[in-house]
Amino acid sequence: xxxxxxxxxxxxxxxxxxxxxxxxxxxxxxxxxxxxxxxxxxxxxxxxxxxxxxxxxxxxxxxxxxxxxxxxxxxxxxxxxxxxxxxxxxxxxxxxxxxxxxxxxxxxxxxxxxxxxxxxxxxxxxxxxxxxxxxxxxxxxxxxxxxxxxxxxxxxxxxxxxxxxxxxxxxxxxxxxxxxxxxxxxxxxxxxxxxxxxxxxxxxxxxxxxxxxxxxxxxxxxxxxxxxxxxxxxxxxxxxxxxxxxxxxxxxxxxxxxxxxxxxxxxxxxxxxxxxxxxxxxxxxxxxxxxxxxxxxxxxxxxxxxxxxxxxxxxxxxxxxxxxxxxxxxxxxxxxxxxxxxxxxxxxxxxxxxxxxxxxxxxxxxxxxxxxxxxxxxxxxxxxxxxxxxxxxxxxxxxxxxxxxxxxxxxxxxxxxxxxxxxxxxxxxxxxxxxxxxxxxxxxxxxxxxxxxxxxxxxxxxx
Amino acid sequence: xxxxxxxxxxxxxxxxxxxxxxxxxxxxxxxxxxxxxxxxxxxxxxxxxxxxxxxxxxxxxxxxxxxxxxxxxxxxxxxxxxxxxxxxxxxxxxxxxxxxxxxxxxxxxxxxxxxxxxxxxxxxxxxxxxxxxxxxxxxxxxxxxxxxxxxxxxxxxxxxxxxxxxxxxxxxxxxxxxxxxxxxxxxxxxxxxxxxxxxxxxxxxxxxxxxxxxxxxxxxxxxxx
Lengths: 463, 225
Prior knowledge:
The complex is a heterodimer of chains A (463) and B (225). Chain A is an alpha+beta fold and 463 residues long. Chain A folds into three domains: 29-170, Beta-Lactamase; 231-308; 313-459, Heat Shock Protein 90 (2-Layer Sandwich), CATH 3.30.565.10. Chain A has eleven helices and 14 strands. Chain A has helices spanning 9-58, 114-122, 165-200, 202-215, 231-275, 279-307, 318-331, 335-338, 357-374, 404-419, 428-437; strands at residues 60-62, 65-67, 83-90, 96-101, 128-133, 139-147, 156-163, 314-316, 342-346, 352-354, 378-386, 390-397, 441-446, 452-459. In chain A, strand 3 and strand 4 form a beta hairpin. Chain A is rod-shaped. With 225 residues, chain B is of the alpha/beta class. Chain B has a five-stranded parallel sheet, with helices on both faces. In chain B, helix 2 packs parallel to helix 3 and helix 6 packs across helix 8 (189-201). Chain B starts with a strand and ends in a 9-residue tail after the last strand. Chains A and B meet through helix 5, helix 6, helix 7, strand 9 and helix 9 of A and helix 1, helix 4, strand 5 and helix 5 of B.
C-alpha cells in the first residue's frame, strides 16, 4: 500500500488538477453534444411540421373521397428518397388504413404504432413528433397530426417523415470535434498546471538546496529570500541551526572548562609527587602525566567536533604569522646562550586560510615552536598561495634536521599516534591531525638552512 | 629577590610558596586579581608569577593594568589554557614568559631564574625619536609608552635606524645590518620590512627618499629629547 503522504507534491497537484479537468471536460462534452443534437432535431421537426400542415391544409374531400394536395417536393416522389408522407384513416373501431401516401414510399407503408395513434387521439389538431422505422428499416423522424375534414366521417392522420440519419451523423461528427477540441484544451490545462506547479514549487527546491549546503558545511545559515509562505520556515530553520551551534558551542566550552579546571589539581599533584620520595609518588606522577595527555587529547577532540559545524570562515594569514613570530621570539629568548632566535617570515598581505583562526594558530604555532626547539637561532617561515584554492606554509630551521629515514619515521609515528593517544616528540602529530581535518597534508624535507623543512598544504580562502 | 606569587588555588599556592622560599626568594602571595594589582603597583618586586584564572579580576586584565601603569616588573604567566591564541594574548598583554599547567616546579624555577637574569642586565641608555622609544637592554620599543610588538628582524632594523635617525639610509646598508651576511634574500626584503614597521609605528615616521633610501624622523610637533 502506497503511503499517500509520501507522494510527490508535484504529482499530487498534477493528479488532482488532471482528474478535475477530465470530469469537467467530459461534462462539457456531453452537455454540448446534447444541446447540438436537440437544436438540430428542433429544426428538423419544424420543417416536417410545415409539410404536415401543407398536407392537412391542402387536402379536400370530393364525393366522400380524399384528395391529397399536389406536393412539389421532388424528394417525396422518388422511391426511398428519404422523405415520405401519408394520410391515414382512423376508423371507429380503431383500425388504421392508409388512404394516400407519397410515391417515395413505393411499396411500403408509413405506419404509426397504436400507442402513437392514442397519443394523437388524446390531442387532436396538435402536431406531434415520433421516431419511426421506415422503408429499408431506416430511422425516421415523423411529424403527425390528427384532424377531421368536413365531409369525411373518420378522423384522418396526416404524417410527414424524413430520414433522420443526416442529423445523427451531424451530431456524432459534432461530438467527435468536441471531444477532440476539449482533449486539446484539457491537455493544455494540465500542462499549464505542471509548469505552474514546477515554477511555484521552485522556492521549495531552493530551500532544500540551501539546507543541503548547510549540512555539507558550505554555508552557516539560509540566506535566500523566500515567499511569505516559506519565509517563516526559513526563519525557523535558521533559529534551529543557531540553536544547534549554540549547543555545540556550549558543550565545547563545557569540555574546555572541565579540562582546564583539571590542570591546576594536576599541577599540585605533580609538584607534590616530585617532592616526595617513594613508590606512591612515582605512581602519582606517572598517572598525573597520563591524565594531562588525556586532557589535552580530549580538548583537541572537542575542538575538532566543533570545527565540522563551520568551515566557511576566512582567516587572514599575515597578522597571525606576525603575532606568532613576536611571541615565539619571546618564548625562545634565552636560547643560544641568551641570543634568542630570529624568525624571518614572509606572507602576501591578502593571503587567507579557509578555516578557523584558532586552528591556523595551532598549525603555524606548533610548527614554528617545533622549529624553535630544534634550531640554532634562525627560522624562516613562508606562506604562499598555491593554485586557485590551496596555500603552502613552509617552516625552515637551521637545526640538525632529520635523515630521510627519520623523516618517514616521524610522519608514520604521527599517523599511528593520531589513532591512539596524543603526544609526539616532534609536536607534529597535532599538526598532522589538524591538517587532515582540513584535508591538508604535512611534508617533511630538507631545509636550505640546513635543518628540517616542514611544508603544510592547506585550503585557501578566495581573496 | 622578592617575588609576587598570584595564585588562587590554596594547595598550589602552598607548594609554590615553599618551593620559591627554598630557592631563596622572598615571596608575597596574592589570592585574587584585585590584591595582586594593588601589590604589584605598590611594592617593588623583582618578578611576578601570575596565574591567569583568578577571582575578581582575571590575570590578563591585571597584567594589562600594570603595563599601562608603567609597572615593568617581569611577569611569568601560569595558565591552564595553552592554545596558541591564549599564549599570543598573554604576551600581547605584556607577559615576559609563559608556563602551561600542569608543570614541574623545577621548570618554573628555571624559567624564573632566566627571567631575573635577563632583567638584571646593566642599564643601557634608551634611544628615542619623538614619541618613539627603544630600550636596547630589554630589546623593547614603544610609542607614547604603548609597547610595540616587533620581531627581532624588525627590532634590529628599527634599532639601526634610530641610531642613525634623521639620516637617509640606503637599502644596501639596511640589508647588511639586517642579515648577518650569508643569506641574501630577494631584492624587495627591505620594502617588506619597512612596510611592516610603518604599519606598527605609523606610516609617517619612516620617510622614503626616492632613489636613496629611507629616513626615520620624529613627527612634526613632537619634542626630540
